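Example with several molecule types.
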Amino acid sequence: MSGTFTKAMARNIFYGGAVFFFLLLVALSFDTMSGLPKSDNRANLTESVLRGKHIWETRNCIGCHTLLGEGAYFAPELGNVYPRRGAEFIKAWIKSQPTGTPGRRQMPNFNLTEQELDDIVAFLKYTSEINTQKWPPNIEG
Amino acid sequence: MKYSSQSVAMPYFIAAIGLFVGQIIFGLVMGLQYVVGDFLFPEIPFNVARMVHTNLLIVWLLFGFMGATYFLVPEEAETELYSPKLALLMFWIFLVAGAATILGYLLVPYSTLAEMTGNNILATMGREFLEQPLLTKIGIVIVALAFLFNITMTMLKGRKTVISIVLLMGLWGLAIFFLFSFYNPGNLVKDKFYWWWVVHLWVEGVWELIMAAILAFVLIKVTGVDREVIEKWLYVIITLALVTGLIGTGHHYFWIGTPEYWQWLGSVFSALEPIPFFAMTVFAFNMVNRRRREHPNKAAVLWALGTGVMAFLGAGVWGFLHTLAPVNYYTHGSQITAAHGHMAFYGAYVLVVLTIISYAMPLLRGRAANDERAQVCEMWGFWLMTISMVFITLFLTAAGILQVWLQRVSDTPMPFMAVQDQVSLFYWMRLWAGVVFAAGLVTYLASFFVKGESKPLIHA
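Resulting structure tokens for the full complex:
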């Protein structure tokens, strides 16, 4: 911080740098959005999937589970639960909660209807088919 | 205290500390649920405890930032606050809305809460950290706008210093990027992409501006170093923060359905993200070493130095540990993430808020610094909380390494819950470290009630 590097120079570099890199982020975001149709599995974004996402959100599943690695780390990753367990297992599992095993982590029962169970499975199937650059490393998530 | 309207900061600081206590109580509940899975089930399931823990953290830090701003801006602008009444009104609105939201989480099933609060009109709930009902989110925007109006008007009528300009930019950024919380497309990839425009651009973007400005203010006050020097440092630090942090957002775009080029961009730029935090540490120590006065508030100096060091360790070093894409491929969404999250939030944002509280609270109570005994008690609080947070982080890191090994690296990967059983020893140790943290917090609280001689008020 010698005398030649003045506060005015520092300020100008800040404003220039901040604006440049923010615009770069915006440009990259535009590019990402235009490339997404190839990777985000939007072709399978059905009404059932959308209802399933709504159920996922309103039961706060993310408060215990991760989805594509994001969320809480208390319960298994569900981004690939569909290929790991299959539709029937997922539905039976949700219906049979809580297990009530003493000392074990418990999942609440959400009293979902058959239709709602099918929707959440549809959402998890759609999620598992998003191109995630081969993440997670194996089927255990 | 130079301007009487600075006193509106006091209730903000008290509320911040009160909610901090709540956050830690729920942290302990979750720490226990990690090892005794059915603790408090079904009364307080883990997801509810976590929502309360993280939302209380966000809300108390916001109370802290607002209190800091109300204290700092009149002094920097050399004028009274535009409207102390508006500031107090917003305090009560924010406190009541925050408390109602937390009670809603605890007393009403989340799906019912969603239905009651208009989530079917505009679905924004059920996403990590943005779990607040629509009404609360709208409330946050209203409080933020009223707050920013008040602060901007104060600045416009007074002296415009670099510190207050940087602080204000950070706060405006905070409010603007929060608007992305209202965007929740059905396309999960887009949802996740813009979710980070709130979460990442807050904590690794505009919040760093707020943090650096608050730290710079306290350092000017406690060291007496020339403002020109400190302001130049401030610009350098925030330049580094935004140049690395903006494209550094890419380290969240590795595995969520986004193009592969983010692995390069995210890795390179986020590998540079420790630099601004390192600069902050050097800055804090440098200014304290070059101090021109011995400020009687030694505790505030300790908090300020602690902020530099712990932010660098938690956000910088622990962030770097798992930010390179080939590493993150294995560590993404593991206990490594939890370890980093804990120390980064504590080191950067908890400590900077406690720094300004430590500096400002004695002044708000009519003295330059607290009695020696009160300061010693406060510093015990600092060391107990800081050292136990280091251990929480180390235990979670150990759990994370083991988890990643057993579940993801191994040729015969184990299922998630089987791995959790294997690493439970580290969860127990984390819980005990958490108990020490709570003891540190109690010590810190006690320091406010230690009586003794107070130092006479000096004018900085």
